[in-house]
Amino acid sequence: MESTGQMAGQMADAAGDGSHRAGFVALVGKPNVGKSTLMNALLQHRLSIVTPRPQTTRQRVLGILTKDDCQVLFLDTPGLLEPGYRLQEYMLQSAVHTLHDSDAAVAIVDATRFERDLDDRVAGFLEQSRGPVILAINKIDRIPRTALLPMIERATGRFPFTEIVPVSALKGDGLEPLLSAVIRILPSGPALYPADMLTDQPERFFAGEIIREHLFLALREELPYASAVIVEDFTDRPNGTAFIQAGIIIERDSQKGIIIGKNGRMLKRIGSSARKAIVEFLDRPVYLDLRVKVRPSWRKKEQELRRLGYTRR
Questions:
Q1: The pTM is what?
Q2: Do domains 4-184 and 203-307 have the same CATH topology?
């Protein structure tokens, strides 16, 4: 991603009276704090995939919120983690680069794991932000209200947040105050994307993400993390049906049998649920063909990661 902060700054010169605001806002935090759920809630559109498992998000996802007086360009990012292999290194780099390149950031913590989610390492990452940082304390529906004030007091001592906003992305609580806080810190400038545009990623990307989401939901233990999805064909046929052929990439032959399942039942289950979700996302009929392929140790190989689309944008 080209320096988004510079891009917004250049556009701001043409903003006229400065009444309109626009800019890139990175959503950052440790895995499983609710970044994707929060972006979807703010957009009022299910754009980023969501599962109960940490590390579901592997690439940054742009979500565009356009209003009369502003355009907020939210960037959902992979979790800030301790990388154990090359894919995780890519994920961390993607998050840090996005944080550095954006005009502002929203750091998100899980209220039930506040101390873990706002440790010194996370505070160190936040120092790389070139713009103001808001703290969103998420999942407040899971804690007593009396626990909030001590959290806010501890947060102010760890990083100079512009504002601290308690929210529940799942319940929709606190979203308006958070959005208002975000808009206040955006630079002045005209919209950077057309008003009817929701994201910059193509439908092909989201089809692959939805398939991977249903892999994560269906599989257990380490297998979801050892799997990837590559969309090999995405064609709109004359009858209005989207034909999608995708490969499910795994690392070992022994994993292939688990994904296919007895008499192909697991693969059919994944394919059926993913197809329904893709139909809802694309709003047109879908023919989905899934195939399972083995690429040994793909998570650790730079060439394989590039082939699967894990490159910095």
A1: 0.92
A2: no
Residue 31 makes CB contacts below 8 A (sequence gap 6+) with 54, 55, 78, 79, 80, 81
Topology annotation, domain 203-307: GMP Synthetase; Chain A, domain 3 (3.30.300)
- Tokens 């989207």 sit on residue: 242
Give the type of residue at 23: G
Structure tokens at 213: 């989401």
**Whether 1 contacts 60, CB under 8 Å:** yes
Residue 3 has pLDDT above 70, yes or no: no
Band of the pLDDT at 114, cuts 50, 70, 90? Answer: very high
The amino acid at 41: A
Query: Residue 175 has which token pair?
Result: 């979203």
Predicted local confidence at residue 170, as pLDDT: 96
pLDDT at 14: 43
Residue 248 to residue 230: CA distance in whole angstroms: 7
The percent of residues above 90 in pLDDT, for the chain, comes to 92
Show me where the domains of the chain are located. 4-184, 203-307
Pick from 100, 102, 114, 106: nearest CA to 36: 106
Domain at 4-184, CATH class: alpha beta
Sign of CA dihedral 266, 271, 274, 275: negative
For residues 64 and 116, is the Cβ–Cβ distance under 8 A? no
